[in-house]
């Protein structure tokens, strides 16, 4: 399970918007740590927020622990990085076999587009699966 601490910043109906307090592995600021939290601030200045179900009725300002189901982060990373790459390579190989270098270029673009469409489809499907959504630990 992946866990992070955050603060409830807004309530909208049955949902709570959580601002994650820290990023990184916990050793970022320690000597010999990776420094990932400092590197992340170079690319993203806005705090990370998530909208999660609020069954316990948490209030604004309350500190909560947000939990992501085990395996869901790895599964989504696999789909986000590997699936479009394989589609790109498959399209390039198929295009190359059909029309040489120009076919490889066209096939790689078509494969990348197909990989993106498959990823969007999977994302829409995962939004409906409650087991893959972040939740507030009681």
Automatic annotation (TrEMBL):
Q: Which Pfam families does this entry report, sorted A to Z?
A: RseC_MucC
Which top-rank group of organisms is this from?
A: Bacteria
Keyword Cell inner membrane assigned:
no
Question: What InterPro entries does the record point to?
Answer: RseC, SigmaE_reg_RseC_MucC
Q: Which UniProt keywords apply?
A: Membrane, Transmembrane, Transmembrane helix
Q: State which residue ranges cross the membrane.
A: 86-119
PANTHER family, alphabetized:
PROTEIN RSEC
Can you name this protein? Sigma-E factor regulatory protein RseC
Q: What is the lineage of its organism?
A: Bacteria, Pseudomonadati, Pseudomonadota, Betaproteobacteria, Candidatus Accumulibacter
Q: Which gene encodes it?
A: rseC
């Amino acid at each position: 399970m992946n866990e992070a601490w955050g603060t409830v910043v807004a309530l909208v109906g049955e949902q709570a918007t959580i601002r994650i307090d820290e990023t990184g592995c916990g050793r970022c600021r320690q000597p010999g740590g990776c420094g990932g939290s400092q590197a992340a601030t170079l690319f993203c200045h806005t705090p990370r927020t998530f909208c999660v179900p609020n069954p316990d009725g948490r209030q604004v300002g309350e500190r909560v622990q947000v939990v992501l189901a085990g395996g869901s982060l790895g599964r989504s990373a696999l789909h986000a990085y590997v699936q479009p790459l394989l589609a790109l390579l498959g399209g390039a190989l198929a295009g190359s076999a059909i029309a040489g270098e120009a076919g490889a270029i066209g096939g790689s673009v078509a494969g990348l587009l197909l990989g993106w469409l498959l990823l969007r489809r999977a994302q829409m499907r995962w939004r409906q699966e409650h087991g893959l959504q972040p939740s507030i630990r009681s």
